[in-house]
Design brief:
Layout: H1 2-18, H2 24-38, E1 44-47, E2 50-59, E3 64-71, E4 77-81, E5 86-89, E6 92-100, E7 113-125, E8 128-131, E9 147-149, E10 152-159, E11 167-174, E12 181-189, E13 203-205, E14 208-211, E15 219-221
Parallel strand pairs: 2-7
Antiparallel strand pairs: 1-2, 2-3, 3-4, 5-6, 6-7, 7-8, 9-10, 10-11, 11-12, 13-14, 14-15
């Protein structure tokens, strides 16, 4: 009886010792693979037929936010500021692009945290990609803060023709379809900042369009761009 028990114990011990246990490397690899499956980005529609195929955070030092890599209906790919998004202007689309900053010292390490700088604003009209600064007078891609209201584009026009650095600032309405521009001179300013929101975007409230730079220089316009003050 003792011999039989001893044989059974030995057999159980051998079976346990010969069963392959997963090592640490295999466990880490398996966990990583599962995490990649769980965290795999799922593309989604943003507006119209534009699809977001990746997104994450970006920084360029003083400014930052969320970026999105988008694929257009014609299958080209661009990187945009996701906070600004893609907006309709008539039958066309409008967005702010971002581009990569090489050797940016504070660029984060994650592949979803990028060092990106502000690029041009683009109007996508069918197969045409139009750079706003090339068709809108005195448009500054960094400071003009454009907004689309009732299919017209409103922005701060910055005339930098003065050689002393003084800038003439005007409230501006740009009609993309006709190419016509209306501008109302507001004031002169020295822009000594790297804050791209120095001139906040014009906005619509109760049928009134506001240009407000937060310095007691609020200007109000009707929807047909007639000044109230």
């Amino acid at each position: 009886m003792k011999n039989t028990s001893l044989i059974l114990i030995c057999a159980f011990t051998v079976a346990c010792s010969t069963h392959k246990q997963p090592n640490k490397v295999e466990t880490v690899k398996s966990t990583t693979e599962r995490a990649e499956v769980v965290n795999k980005f799922k593309p989604y529609k943003l507006i119209g037929d534009y699809t977001v195929i990746d997104t994450g955070e970006y920084s360029n030092g003083p400014m930052g936010g969320l970026y999105a890599i988008v694929r257009s209906p014609s299958n080209y790919i661009d990187t945009i500021d996701l906070g600004y998004g893609i907006r309709r202007i008539g039958d066309a689309f409008f967005y702010e692009s971002l581009y990569g900053v090489k050797n940016y010292d504070d660029s984060p390490g994650s592949k979803h945290d990028l060092g990106l700088d502000f690029g041009e604003y683009y109007i996508i009209d069918g197969n045409k990609k139009i750079t706003l600064s090339k068709i809108a007078p005195n448009f500054d891609k960094y400071f003009s803060s454009p907004n689309i209201i009732d299919n017209s584009l409103y922005y701060w026009q910055l005339d930098k023709s003065d050689t002393t650095g003084k800038i003439k600032v005007s409230a501006t309405r740009f009609d993309y379809k006709s190419g016509k521009t209306q501008a109302v001179y507001l004031f002169e300013d020295y822009v000594e900042t790297d804050d791209s929101g120095y001139f906040p975007a014009p906005y619509l409230q109760h049928d009134t369009i506001y240009f407000d730079n937060g310095k007691s220089q609020l200007k109000k316009f009707s929807k047909d761009f007639k000044s109230y003050n």
